[in-house]
Design a protein that fits this description.
By secondary structure, this protein is an alpha+beta fold. Helix content is about 40%, strand content about 20%.
């Protein structure tokens, strides 16, 4: 069988302990010819303030779903960022990737009234700018590993996108992506320990990889010592609801009023049946609702490395204070910059190819701004000298 250009991703290292993700020496450079795709919801802060963050998260996850379905594979690196996403694809997939991004941009505007910026840039352009994209994988369960990015190339591409120097036009009117498997039926997940803390920490310009890796390890240890390791989802707070707030958003993945209405009725029937199974702990035709919850928790991306540390944690006041202390000290020492946002619940947006397999994935963010609001604080901090923060 001829080698696939996607084979590269399946051969890169799989890390089994999150506290080691800051050791970027384990990451592998993308091959020549690969491209980086980036997407970002424009004016996401305004959309959040208007109460539309579930829709914002849906658009971010739709980039990944649309790319998977458009390419016909999930063997490529991707990362969910709350109000956007990052992906990497081989040169052979350039046209299909550009089409998928353009279609998601059109879907975001026509279905959810959100403006999505999308761009695609060759890895050679990133390297000419003095950056790189290196990747590894974090194994969270036997069936799922999430991509990890290092080299500051993703950050560079995002800055270029937001500056208007990197942009793909949207697809023609009505040309939507295939979003099969994308789901957002869970209600906001209430904090069990007092707060949901979303944080982003990035190395300062002159910080060495080893120094920042030490910071990642220290924060990871604090999170691991929190109740339930800070995981925002648990069997007790994953409570299905028939008329969930995300049902109408998910229904709008089908084009047109009629298509959305029919999809809503279908989803409502599925949701009602699922509620019965979950509420009674009944298995049906091989589907075990209790196992589905267990795997969903394992396959949640509540912590990641995407040119820096990102976490959404369920924690108490003591854990929050300890994390802030460590980050404050790192910032004052010129080691790192960071942003934190605290809220009382989390959101979970899902990619479920099939409820009968264990490869479903769940993207976690704070329910009141999460990563997008943490990024606002990070930008403010980056604009000030460390001593003034």
């Amino acid at each position: 069988m001829a080698a696939s250009p996607f084979d590269f991703y399946d051969t890169i290292p799989v890390l089994d302990r999150f506290e080691t993700v800051g050791d970027t020496a384990q990451y592998v450079p993308l091959p020549s010819g690969w491209l980086i795709g980036v997407a970002d919801v424009e004016n996401s802060t305004k959309a959040i303030a208007a109460g539309h963050y579930k829709a914002v998260n849906m658009v971010g996850a739709s980039v990944i779903a649309g790319m998977m379905n458009g390419l016909g594979t999930r063997s490529f690196p991707f990362a969910f960022g709350g109000d956007g996403a990052s992906i990497a694809v081989p040169a052979e997939a350039r046209d299909a990737a550009a089409d998928a991004l353009a279609r998601v941009r059109r879907f975001a505007r026509e279905s959810l009234n959100l403006e999505l910026r999308v761009g695609l840039v060759p890895i050679e352009t990133i390297r000419e700018a003095g950056h790189d994209v290196r990747v590894a994988r974090l194994g969270v369960s036997p069936d799922v590993a999430f991509a990890l990015f290092a080299g500051h190339g993703i950050q560079w591409a995002e800055r270029e996108l937001k500056a208007g120097r990197l942009e793909l036009a949207e697809a023609p009117e009505g040309a939507w992506p295939d979003l099969e498997g994308l789901s957002c039926r869970w209600e906001p997940i209430a904090a069990r320990n007092g707060r949901i803390l979303s944080l982003i920490a990035v190395p300062a310009p002159d910080t060495g990889d080893a120094d920042f890796a030490g910071l990642v390890t220290e924060i990871s240890a604090i999170a691991d010592a929190a109740p339930d390791r800070g995981v925002p989802v648990s069997p007790n707070n994953l409570v299905p609801k028939i008329f969930s707030s995300g049902l109408s958003i998910e229904a709008r993945t089908h084009e047109g009023r009629v298509g959305a209405a029919l999809n809503y009725l279908k989803l409502l029937a599925v949701s009602t049946f699922g509620w019965v199974l979950f509420a009674n702990h009944w298995s049906f035709n091989g589907f075990d609702p209790d196992r589905y919850k267990e795997i969903s928790i394992q396959n949640s991306d509540f912590r990641k490395y995407d040119d820096g540390l990102r976490m959404t944690l369920d924690c108490d006041a003591d854990v929050e204070a300890e994390i802030r202390r460590v980050l404050d000290e790192a910032h004052i020492a010129g080691l790192a910059n960071y942003g934190i946002h605290v809220q009382d619940s989390a959101l979970m947006t899902c990619l479920v190819p099939s409820v009968m397999t264990d490869d479903h994935m769940h993207f976690i963010d704070g329910a009141a701004g999460g990563y997008a609001q943490a990024a606002v604080m990070l930008k403010q901090q980056l604009a000030l000298p460390a001593q003034a923060a």
